[in-house]
Specification:
The chain is an alpha/beta fold. It contains 11 helices and 15 strands.
Length: about 350
C-alpha cells in the first residue's frame, strides 16, 4: 500500500497516532498542517519524513499567491525552515527539502513552470522511495534463510516509508519468496511503534509475529531464539548508525552472542559528510515517559530524560542493506564514495 499520496493540493496519509485501533486518513492541505503532522508523529519514519517534507513544499507551491519567481523562492525557503524545525535527527527530511530548493534555484524556467516543478519533484521523491524499498527488500531477502526467526525494533515498514518498508521490506520480500520465517517485534517504548505499528503491518500481511517488551530482547538473543536482527535507520553517518532508542543495546547484545545485526535504509538516509558527534539527537516531551497514553504511570513532577534515538558504532553492524546491494564490514570504508550518489 502507499502510505502517502498527492491529489491536486491534498496530501492523504494515515494518522499513525491512532493505529492500530483506528485507521484515520489525514487530509493535509497546507504547509502548517504538514508541519504539525510531522511534529506530532502523525507521520513518522525517516523515508516517509523525506516524502512528507517534499509534499509540504508542494503544498506551498500549490497554495502560493505570490506574483514573482523571486518571491516564490523566498516563500519556499521559509517553508523549508518551518519543516526543518519539526524533527532534528532523521536526515531524509533535510535531504528532500534541500534537493528541491537546489533544483529550483538552478532552473531557468518561468514562474509557473517553477511552481509545477516543485510538485513534480515531490512526487518523484515519493516514487523513488517506493522503488528503493522494493530493491532493499530484494537484496536483504538474500540474507534471510528459510526458517529464520528475525528480531526487529521500532517500525521500519510501509508505515515508515512511502511503500513496502526497509527492515520490514526485507522481511516481506523473504516471505513473498516462500521462506517460512517468523518475526519477533519489540514493543518499542515509549510510543510503542513496534506494538502498535509493526505488529499491525505483519498481522495484516499474514506474517507470523510475536510481540515482546523491550527488556526481553537480551534474553531472547542470549538464548539463541533468533537468527538475525534487522532494523531501519534514521541517519547513517561516517562512524555509526543512528536509529530508534534501544537499537544500540540490541546491536551490542547481538554482537556478543554472534547474531548477525543488519540495518536496512535507502541512500537518502546516508549523511556521510558528518560524524555522530555532530548530530542533534532529538529529545521528546516528558509525558511520553510519565504517561501510558493519557494515563499517568509515574510520580508527578519526576524529572525525565527522553532521547528518541541512539548511536550504534559500525563495529556492531554486520551489514547495511541499501537499494544498490549490501555493504558488509569490509565495505564500510567505501562509504564516502557512496555518499556522492545521494
Amino acid at each position: 500500500m502507499r502510505t502517502i499520496e498527492w491529489n491536486e493540493g491534498i496530501v492523504t496519509t494515515i494518522d499513525q497516532t491512532k493505529l492500530p485501533h483506528e485507521e484515520i486518513i489525514l487530509k493535509i492541505r497546507t504547509l502548517n498542517e504538514m508541519a504539525e503532522a510531522i511534529r506530532n508523529m502523525r507521520v513518522r519514519g525517516a523515508p516517509l519524513l523525506g516524502a512528507s517534507a517534499a509534499y509540504g513544499l508542494a503544498l506551498t507551491a500549490f497554495n502560493s499567491r505570490v506574483t514573482s519567481k523571486e518571491e516564490f523562492i523566498k516563500e519556499l525557503k521559509s517553508s523549508a525552515q518551518t519543516l526543518k524545525a519539526t524533527r532534528p535527527t532523521a536526515v531524509n527530511l533535510f535531504w528532500a527539502l534541500d534537493r528541491i530548493l537546489k533544483k529550483i534555484q538552478a532552473l531557468n524556467k518561468s514562474f509557473s513552470e517553477t511552481k509545477q516543478m516543485v510538485i513534480q519533484e515531490a512526487q518523484k521523491i515519493a516514487d523513488e522511495d517506493a522503488k528503493a524499498n522494493r530493491a532493499i527488500g530484494k537484496h536483504g531477502a538474500e540474507l534471510i534463510d528459510d526458517g529464520d526467526i528475525i528480531l526487529t525494533h521500532c517500525n521500519a515498514g510501509a508505515l515508515a516509508t512511502v511503500e513496502y518498508g526497509t527492515a520490514l521490506g526485507v522481511i516481506r520480500a523473504a516471505w513473498e519468496q516462500g521462506k517460512k520465517i517468523q518475526v519477533i517485534a519489540t514493543e518499542t517504548r515509549p510510543l510503542l511503534q513496534g506494538a502498535r505499528l509493526t505488529v499491525y503491518e505483519l498481522k495484516r500481511d499474514g506474517i507470523p509475529v510475536k510481540l515482546i517488551t523491550d527488556n526481553m530482547a537480551g534474553f531472547i538473543i542470549q538464548k539463541k531464539i533468533i537468527n538475525k536482527v534487522v532494523v531501519g535507520a534514521d541517519r547513517i553517518v561516517q562512524d555509526a548508525i543512528i536509529n530508534k532508542i534501544g537499537t544500540f543495546s540490541l546491536a551490542v547484545i547481538a554482537n556478543e552472542f554472534g547474531v548477525p545485526f543488519y540495518v536496512a535504509a535507502p541512500k537518502s538516509t546516508f549523511d556521510l559528510s558528518k560524524e555522530s558527534k555532530e548530530i542533534v539527537i532529538e529529545e521528546r516531551k516528558r509525558e511520553e515517559v510519565t504517561h501510558f497514553g493519557s494515563q499517568p504511570v509515574a510520580v508527578s513532577g519526576v524529572e525525565v530524560y527522553n532521547p528518541a534515538f541512539d548511536i550504534t558504532p559500525y563495529k556492531y553492524v554486520s551489514g547495511i542493506i541499501h537499494e544498490d546491494g549490501v555493504f558488509f564490514k569490509k565495505d564500510f570504508r567505501t562509504f564516502r564514495n557512496y555518499n556522492s550518489a545521494r
